[in-house]
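Hello, quick one for you while I still have it in my head. A protein chain has come my way and I'm curious about its shape. I'm sending you its amino acid sequence along with the backbone structure tokens. I'd be grateful if you could look everything over and explain what you see. Here's the protein in full, and shout if anything looks odd to you:
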Amino acid sequence: MDSEIERLSIGSLDFVPYFYEENYGFEEDGPLRNCELKVKLSQERFTELMDLISTLASSGGYLPVIRHGISDDPIEMRIGPYLWSQDKEEIKVAFALVSPICDEKENMFYWNQPITMNTNIGLINQYETMEKLITTLQEKGILNKEDVLRISKNEKKNLQYRLQKHREVDDVDNINPMGALRRLIR
């Protein structure tokens, strides 16, 4: 369904998409909805979006989404997969928003979902192992407080950077979001 959206509020962030498509249907448990969109952002706004995605990824949370121009009623959704590309001074981001009921439906699982989940679990395990190693080295007096702060700060920054770079493409406008993002959902 093509919708005339004026602005999209995702939690505390507002976006004006230059592409927006909403997929909507009904199941016996309620409405089945996901949205696919593209936005152009400054580096600062891109960082805000990546921070929100990072926070939600660790909590697995949903947040209120308001589709201004379609409905001012908030609906609970999560930020699904995303791809991004650099475009001169702006960053173009294509991403999906997914409703909770989509997550509950078996037909929303795609072949790469176990791979993605296992990769995420592996990254979390590596991060936790690194934290335990740093704590142990500090307790044994091998690392001082300054060393720990420097390592921790760099590791968090590098991990977030590596995760972002993993989703960079040449140009999001050359990718069919209906195909690419739909395959990545979950």
User: Anything to note?
Assistant: The mean pLDDT is 78.
